[in-house]
Task: structure prediction
Amino acid sequence: MHLDELRTILLEERDTGELTMISPDLFMKTSEHIRSLQQEVYSHEDPFSDEARLLIEKVSSVRATVEELFKIRTDKIVGLALSQAEGSYIEREELRSLIPAELEMFNRIVDAIRQSKTQLIEWKATPARQVRVGSDEENLCVEGSEPAVLEDINRAEESDYNEPVIKTSSDAPFANDIVLALSSMEPFMGIDGRTYEMDAGDILTLPSRNAQVLVERDIVLNIHPG
Result:
């Protein structure tokens, strides 16, 4: 999933109040793309080179774009779940736009809202009722007193679909070193995508590749190798 394509999808998602149709493996492919770019960054001997810097910036851009896309879609899903929990009608096409992982999120939110409503305001349980969405062959039923277990019309049946994991800087596969700054340095971006700045005398944690180069340049002293 290239950055330009991802940005196009994000713009479309921003421009409409409804969920757009996306590929079920969009987040998974984006995660794989990020890991691939990170490996390219890690393969550079000098993480401060122009090529490495451009790759690091691209990783940050891809991550920021996919995280914003996730946030916008999640906000819409929460709104749909609230409407469903309150018994409002939801368009069939809206549910078709949910990828499997989002459908599971939707179900859990609806169930959580209903349970909280019962617990917090002592709502008397009412007989279960069904809400039909779609045709006789493709109708989705929601039990009023049970978790909202929905079956996606085209996508949820994909047994080989795995929920994607988008890695952030906190769990990226980079070793870190603790260093002592021997001199000040202008802010720079590490191979983990984070921006670092330091003054002489500062003690901070840096990605090992960045720390190694700065040690060779007598800018920092490595006091705790990763």
User: Anything to note?
Assistant: Strands lie at 176-181, 185-189, 195-198, 203-207, 220-224. Residues 126-172 have pLDDT under 50 and may be disordered. DSSP finds six helices and five strands in the chain.
